[in-house]
Design goal:
This protein has 838 residues and is an alpha/beta fold. It is built from 33 helices and 24 strands. Strands 9-16-15-11-12-13-14-10 form an 8-stranded mixed sheet. The protein starts with a strand and ends in a 5-residue tail after the last helix.
Length: 838
């Protein structure tokens, strides 16, 4: 592969650094890029220095060639002079290029990263404005029309035709998988819906793929042109063959509701039954903060483009946080909704269109972004398919988030003083995922549908919802009493006593049924041959522990203490923490409580802790125990609070992100110091408190035998362990498909950890998402885990799954799973191995 280097020469250092950052992001650092910009004069920093240009060229010099891009005026003169300082043999390898600075740099680095020679790279840079002109054409017509694509005539085009079997076609999640897979390959991938006779569109555009309107039974033509065309098509074909991981029988379509219709009564509103259940409470109106957009002229469009990029990057971080929280609350399957939102932010068509509007029209970032979002939303609304029309909610949700960040507004949080029914025009998926089911008893909106992502999330959270009611509901005063029945799709304003009696009776019957269903969840989880497995809960708040106990949790296997530290301007005091830990332990009523010490840093920074430098790879950075050992004040305060709360309770301490024996020993020394301080002060604590570690780093698995000699228990965190083992970021939709805890490589790590723990005579649990996957239950039983810790809602199902198996058959399934080649084969093995109990 060619090792072409790029040099950017500009009067403005800020501009040059911005261009370099933008270009580097396109190729993830694969191409050397040097900057020579500005002069060392604080009062007049604009200018160019030939010596600085010479040093920049020399720093990245390559015999394959150096391409120099520059802005106007003296930049060209400085570049020409700098070349004269080079050796004659080097001068022949340096090329000055007249291409536009921003577009040229991007085109050049992409071409260089693709391994093209210096002349091809320079040609790409010179042709960068052609792409801009073409993109203007795209902006002026629907985004579903693809830009002309230049292909290498030496690379043949391969094609396949596939029939879509997914019940809902390529809706958001399958479309996101398609785009993420297509983007992994060098080949240019195009797709056409033959059934609807659409144009060819780009396979790396989430919006273009989604707006093809692909439904079950449609035939697609997929073409790939490039050196890895066959591999790309095989990967895409695999997605279709695996049905994109969806079960056509058990999709999240609205429940089949059965309700006897009675004549409409006074104050009754009819709507869409979106989430079953009865709610009776005062109403509270919710309205997303309106952001007024004014278009205005800007003198420096590059600065506006940088503003937009910064807002998009922050939006990406926010959505990743929503995804993480939603995974805990509603499970990975439903949280995958936000994978598609991440891909919207990376959609090249949207980004190029916004970039084009800013640069060519010299307008502000807000106006350009709003125009592009409106255009994409319009293209969705124009579709004949009603299900795909609803995906406009996700586009609007993402668009609004970026606009809020551009405007500098904080995220709107809904804080209810007391339980209520939420009344709104509509709720975005992000709005709904953030609702607290203990405070939001019901949802009533004037728009939406039972198949919207918001409705799916509401059903998963167990919040009754009636959508699409008459707009008069928006005029109700806050505090007005309302009753709604999510099963029949009706709501009543200030309901009469007879209606309240009927609904109360129905609510009581439903609650009784739920209690009966939960009754078995309060029994121990015992396999058919008598092995008992503890089922604990993962929690992140006081509210969670109440749900956990009601769901049958035998204890808390993971208390995430980060909620005490985030969204505030200073660290929580010892007393604040003590009250929370005691309150949670009190609810557990002497059940075990494993408290994980602070796991922030890296990807979860604390605003009141100065990091001092950005981290290129935060998941490999300053987080977990590493962070705590560097902040002994925070660490000791938390340990003091935990120890003080341990009196009279079954509290255990768990250390996160342990990678070395040294870290464990250092933490134990600090714990000993805190215990000595408490002893000296005459403050009581459990002197025999147990200390364990999270096993979530491959090095911890490799030295599990050594670590087991230092601690009292292990808890395997398969969420992080999977991404570290597979070297893939689980929040990055382009590689997230590799992060699968059922991959044999991850399962072997679990096996090795369990064996080391049991050899040392300590217990081992698993608190990752894998524990809640009942498909994985026989494997986890077969690997010998003593404890599974899951989100509270999953406890009844996990206990039922454990009771269906015996250890002997589970060990056989686990042994076979370890010999498979992929997670897909493991799932296939489980599906064919499991037979219903006689």
């Amino acid at each position: 592969m060619a090792a072409i280097a790029i040099v950017i020469v500009s009067h403005s250092k800020q501009l040059a650094l911005g261009v370099r950052e933008l270009a580097a992001q396109m190729v993830q650092g694969q191409v050397p890029i040097a900057v020579a910009a500005g002069i060392e004069d604080p009062e007049n920093p604009l200018g160019t220095d030939p010596i600085q240009v010479y040093e920049a060229i020399a720093s990245v010099f390559s015999d394959d060639g150096v391409l120099v891009l520059m802005d106007l005026g003296s930049a060209l003169l400085s570049a020409e002079m700098a070349i004269e300082f080079l050796l004659e043999a080097q001068q022949e390898k340096v090329y000055l290029c007249e291409a536009p600075l921003v577009e040229g740099a991007i085109a050049a680095v992409v071409a260089a990263a693709a391994g093209r020679d210096i002349h091809q790279v320079m040609a790409e840079a010179r042709g960068a404005l052609l792409a801009k002109a073409t993109q203007l054409g795209v902006v002026s017509r629907p985004l579903s029309v693809v830009s002309p694509i230049t292909t290498n005539i030496e690379s043949p085009t391969r094609e396949i035709r596939l029939i879509v079997s997914n019940r809902l076609g390529l809706h958001a999640r399958p479309a996101a998988q398609f785009v993420a897979t297509a983007a992994r390959f060098q080949s240019q991938i195009l797709v056409r819906n033959l059934t609807r006779n659409t144009e060819l569109v780009r396979g790396d555009s989430i919006n273009q793929v989604t707006t093809l309107g692909v439904r079950q039974g449609h035939e697609l033509l997929i073409t790939a042109t490039g050196s890895d065309a066959d591999e790309a098509l095989a990967a895409l074909q695999g997605l279709f063959a695996n049905n994109f991981g969806e079960d056509n029988v058990a999709l999240h379509s609205p429940p089949a509701f059965h309700y006897e219709v009675t004549p409409t009564t006074y104050g009754e509103l009819s709507g869409i039954a979106a989430s079953p259940g009865v709610a009776i409470a005062p109403v509270v109106h919710y309205q997303s903060t309106h952001i007024a957009i004014t278009e205005y002229h800007v003198d420096d469009p590059d600065v506006e483009w940088q503003r937009l990029q910064a807002a998009i990057n922050t939006a990406r971080q926010e959505i990743q946080a929503v995804f993480s929280q939603a995974s805990l609350q509603i499970g990975d399957a439903e949280a995958a909704i936000f994978d598609a939102q991440l891909l919207f932010l990376e959609d090249p068509v949207m980004l190029e269109a916004a970039h084009q509007r800013i640069l060519d029209n010299h307008i502000n970032a807000e106006a350009a972004w709003q125009a592009v979002v409106d255009e994409v939303a319009t293209s969705y609304r124009a579709l004949e398919d009603s299900y795909l029309q609803e995906r406009v909610d996700d586009v609007v949700d993402v668009g609004r988030r970026v606009l809020r960040l551009l405007a500098g507004n904080a995220a709107a949080n809904l804080h209810l003083e007391s339980p209520a029914i939420l009344v709104a025009t509509d709720l975005t998926p992000s709005d709904t995922a953030g609702l607290d089911p203990t405070k939001v008893l019901g949802i009533c909106t004037t728009s939406g549908s039972a198949t919207s992502h918001s409705a799916i999330i509401a059903r998963t959270l167990g919040i009754p919802a009636v959508l699409g009611v008459d707009a008069q509901v928006l005029h109700l005063a806050d505090g007005t009493m309302m009753a709604l029945d999510g099963e029949s799709g009706r709501a009543w304003v200030e309901p009469e006593s007879d209606i309240l009696d009927l609904l109360a009776a129905k609510q009581e019957a439903w609650q009784t049924a739920q209690q009966e269903a939960r009754a078995t969840a309060h029994q121990p989880a015992i396999t058919r041959d008598g092995r008992r497995v503890s089922v604990f809960a993962n929690i992140g708040s006081i509210n969670d522990v109440q749900v956990a106990v009601a769901s049958g949790a035998e204890g808390v296997g993971l208390l995430r203490t980060e909620f005490l530290y985030l969204d505030r301007t200073s660290a929580p005091t010892e007393e604040e923490q003590l009250l929370v830990y005691q309150a949670i332990a009190q609810v557990l009523d002497n059940r075990p409580l494993i408290i994980r010490t602070l796991d922030v840093g890296g990807d979860k920074p604390l605003p009141y802790i100065k990091v001092g430098f950005p981290e290129a790879n935060p998941f490999l950075g300053w987080r977990g125990i590493r962070f705590c050992l560097d902040h002994l004040d925070l660490f000791k305060t938390q340990l003091r609070a935990i120890l003080r709360a341990s009196v009279g309770h079954q509290i255990k301490i768990m250390l996160p992100m342990i990678a070395t024996v040294t870290e464990v020993r250092a933490a134990k020394v600090i714990l000993g110091e805190v215990q000595a301080e408490l002893n000296q002060a005459g403050i009581a604590f459990d002197a025999a408190i147990k200390v364990g570690i999270m096993v979530e780093v491959p090095s911890a698995v490799a030295i599990a035998d050594r670590l087991a000699a230092e601690v009292d228990f292990f808890s395997i965190g398969t969420n992080d362990l999977s991404q570290y083992v597979m070297a893939s970021d689980r929040t990055n939709p382009r590689v997230a498909n590799l992060v699968d805890a059922l991959h044999p490589a991850v399962l072997r790590m679990v096996q090795q950890t369990v064996q080391a723990a049991h050899t040392a005579g300590i217990s081992v649990g698993l608190c990752g998402e894998l524990a809640a996957d009942t498909l994985a239950t026989p494997i986890l039983l077969g690997l010998g885990l003593d404890e599974l810790s899951v989100n509270p809602q999953s406890i009844p199902g996990v206990k039922q799954a454990i009771a269906r198996f015996c250890i002997v058959e589970s060990e056989a399934i686990a042994a076979s799973a370890l010999q498979q080649d992929s997670a897909e084969y493991v799932r296939e093995l489980i599906s064919t191995s499991i037979t219903p109990p006689a």
